[in-house]
Design a protein that fits this description.
Layout (H helix, E strand, L loop, with lengths): L2 H7 L1 H20 L4 H39 L16 H55 L3 H25 L10 E4 H11 L1 H6 L2 E6 L4 E4 L1 H17 L8 E13 L2 E10 L6 H4 L9 H6 L7 H12 L2 E7 L3 E9 L6
Parallel strand pairs: 2-4
Antiparallel strand pairs: 1-3, 4-5, 5-7, 6-7
Helix pairs in contact: 2-3, 4-5, 6-8, 8-11
Length: about 350
């Protein structure tokens, strides 16, 4: 709060005081008081009023500056009253009390919302774990009763299993503290784990993986990274190029120096599928975005790549892709602060 804005806020009382002072000077002059005395008295009154205004402004300015600084420094602005002392002037007390009541109400609403979100997440996780039992039983029944029809049904059950897995990771993605551990892992082991989980999907789509230069160590959560890689592999299978030949997905790692003793490891997953139209590339990671390929070639929820970027961001991993229609798509995962090659 500047001094000029403070004066503007008190324009009316200042005007009234000025009129009163002029009236007093006029009365003194009418009663024969010398002009020098009138000027002296008016000067003292003006000076006293000015000093009082400055002191009052400084007193209030400290409080309002604290409020402004707290609001600028906080992401959760409703916590501003936690950083500001209660003032000692009436207007400030009323303002502080009103702001504090709203702050407490907001904290209560947020606590209730977080409680509901936690309960919903726990329900989804419980449901996912329960649904895995009948899914596993269905796979077992299909394995023991091989036939073209049963194999087709088993493939559909596999699709269901993939969507259930997406639901689990989407639910956990809002709170990784319960199931999230960053540690050093061999990138080759994580990639092979993802390939094992998606082997049925890749075989069914006639897509052959090729692993190159994966003998590196990265810091990440292996289970979450395996899921992320699996989502990219599913896309490679979904959008395989038409034709009777086999498709390929090449998985390789590169290391680049980004500064003095600073390195990044990039994992690339490159397929030779249909590729994306240039207009879709920039939106590929948007939630629910299916694009032209999602409508033409496969059933798509638009959640796979969205989860890839969301979970990578929480692990401190950069994710992006390059794609050319008719040539293929390459998804990159960049891991900072890596250790040297094993």
């Amino acid at each position: 709060m500047s001094f000029w804005s403070y004066l503007a806020d008190r324009a009316v009382p200042l005007l009234v005081r000025a009129v009163a002072l002029a009236f007093v000077a006029l009365v003194m002059s009418v009663y024969g008081v010398e002009g020098a005395v009138v000027a002296f008295v008016c000067g003292v009154l003006v000076l006293a009023a000015f000093v009082a205004l400055v002191l009052d402004w400084l007193h209030r300015r400290g409080f309002y500056q604290q409020i402004s600084d707290a609001l600028d420094s906080l992401d959760e602005t409703y916590l501003a009253t936690e950083l500001v002392e209660r003032p000692h002037f009436l207007e400030g007390e009323l303002f502080f009390d009103a702001l504090d009541r709203e702050s407490k109400a907001m904290r209560d609403r947020l606590a209730a919302a977080r409680h509901r979100q936690r309960e919903y997440r726990e329900y989804v996780e419980t449901w996912v774990h329960e649904i895995k039992t009948p899914i596993a039983a269905a796979h077992l029944v299909a394995h023991n009763n091989p036939s073209p029809e049963v194999d087709a049904m088993d493939a559909e059950v596999g699709e269901i299993e993939g969507y259930v897995e997406q639901a689990l990771y989407y639910s956990r993605g809002t709170s990784l503290d319960r199931d999230f551990q960053i540690r050093e892992v061999a990138l080759s082991e994580v990639v092979r784990d993802a390939l094992r989980h998606k082997a049925r999907t890749l075989i069914g789509a006639r897509v052959t993986p090729e692993l190159v230069d994966l003998d590196v160590t990265v810091r990440t959560d292996p289970k979450w990274l395996s899921f992320v890689i699996g989502q990219v592999l599913v896309n490679a299978a979904k959008y395989r190029a038409d034709g009777e030949g086999r498709g390929h997905v090449r998985i390789f790692a590169e290391r680049d120096e980004t500064g003095l003793d600073s390195w990044v490891t990039r994992l690339a997953i490159a397929d030779d599928g249909v590729g994306m139209p240039a207009s879709d590339v920039g939106r590929a990671f948007d939630k629910g975005f299916t694009g032209e390929n999602g409508r033409r070639f496969a059933r798509s929820t638009g959640m796979g790549l969205y989860l890839v970027r969301k979970l990578c961001a929480k692990m401190g991993v950069d994710a992006w892709l390059e794609s050319e229609e008719g040539v293929g798509t390459t998804v990159y995962l960049s891991f900072p602060d890596m250790v040297d090659r094993a």
